Amino acid sequence: MTSNDPFSLIDTSVAHPARRYDYWLGGKDNFAADRASGDAIEKIYPHIRTSAQQNRQFLRRVVRYLVTEAGIRQFLDVGTGLPTAGNTHEVAQEVAAECRIAYVDNDPLVMVHARALLTSSAQGKTDYIEADVREPRAILASTAPGGTLDLTQPVAVLLVAVLHFIPDDAVAEAAVKTLVNAMVPGSYLVVSHATDDLMAPDSVQALADGGHVSRADTTLRSRKQVEGFFAGLDMVEPGLQIVSKWRPDPGAEHLPDEHMSVYGGVGRVP
Ligand SMILES: C[S@@+](CC[C@H](N)C(=O)[O-])C[C@H]1O[C@@H](n2cnc3c(N)ncnc32)[C@H](O)[C@@H]1O
To answer: Which domain of life is it from (predicted)?
Structure first.
């Protein structure tokens, strides 16, 4: 195994967000440490799987909306996660095969799986960039010019369930601003973000008490803080919502608000 081998960078003894999320979604690309961390959080907040599943469905609905109704053909999907059903390029290219997607994640295991599985339609393109959202300039440099994305045309920047892994508010805001400022008018920003705004008081208390397991890598933000990421953008209806209430599919199951710990919204670059 050489130092260039991505497998040599994978530490299965420590829980990683992508693999823990895969566990909550019912996937198989996770290890004992990820499952232990996922179970510990679920013990404190029993609705975490529902929230993860609803977040994933929000991502699919948003991508479908952006391609069908907003005419978007390019996506910068930062914090890709492990490939599962309904990945961004699959949803987008099902509607318009020419869609181009640049996937970005900082987890080497995601990189290994993504390179193998996130393969494009013949008419479109997918690319995978190993980078950190805290270094948005490096992300932009890797995607253009001459790369997967043409930044002279609208792009949808997807930051779906990733900004809560950035504890420093200023760093998270700067990352969003740098990415959005590089996009032409008619581009979009999509953010979903973990919150404890809607949780039952006993869950909030349990999360505070169980800080060592639940808050170690996740920064919960309030509605006002998440709205701040969209500063200067025109919010797409229905604005920032808990993810299950953002343009739900007809006949979608109604879930109590306190079962949901993720906000989601879409803003348009004016
Ligand atoms: C909860 S998953 C979300 C996956 C997908 N966006 C979704 O919502 O279904 C979060 C992803 O963000 C990635 N991630 C966490 N911190 C990151 C960072 N600083 N830079 C880039 N990716 C990061 C993790 O590796 C993981 O794949």
So the answer is: Bacteria
